[in-house]
């Protein structure tokens, strides 16, 4: 079991980790869309994430207020821990393939784009973790 290092909360690793979760979710949605390219009436799935993340990182979005009940909406800038990807069915009833609203070429392009983002976030976390580990060990130079 890994213990959570409080120092990591002060880095960009939690943001990249949220990205990994979203990219994995998006990858599953795209795979589902591709699998259903020939299913009559199927509506493709999209995943939203970036707008929520942008709001959570926006230092200027600061509205005073507090939640007094768990069902109340969040005010102002959301905390990073509350940011999560959300899948939804697209109500675009265009039928590129005359069967449903899935265009295989678009889905394949989205899959490639998502894979690049996932690989970048993975490499970024690996690099940051290594840098932090080296700093903790004191293995790089120094007097």
> Strands of the biggest beta sheet: in what spatial order?
1-2
Count all strands and give the number: 2
| Amount of helix | 40-55%
Beta fraction? 5-15%
Average pLDDT, to the nearest integer? 83
Q: Which series of helices and strands comes N to C?
A: HEHEH
CA-based gyration radius? 20 Å
Short description:
This protein has three helices and two strands; from the N terminus they run αβαβα. The chain is 45% helix and 6% strand. The protein has a two-stranded antiparallel ribbon with strand order 1-2.
Describe what you observe in this structure:
It is a single chain. This protein has 143 residues and is mainly alpha-helical. The chain has a domain at 15-49 and 84-130. Helices cover 45% and strands 6% of the residues. The chain has three helices and two strands. Helix 1 packs antiparallel against helix 3 (104-137). The model has no long low-confidence stretch (mean pLDDT 83).
List the helices and strands and how they pair.
Blueprint (H helix, E strand, L loop, with lengths): L12 H23 L9 E4 L1 H8 L28 E4 L14 H34 L6
Antiparallel strand pairs: 1-2
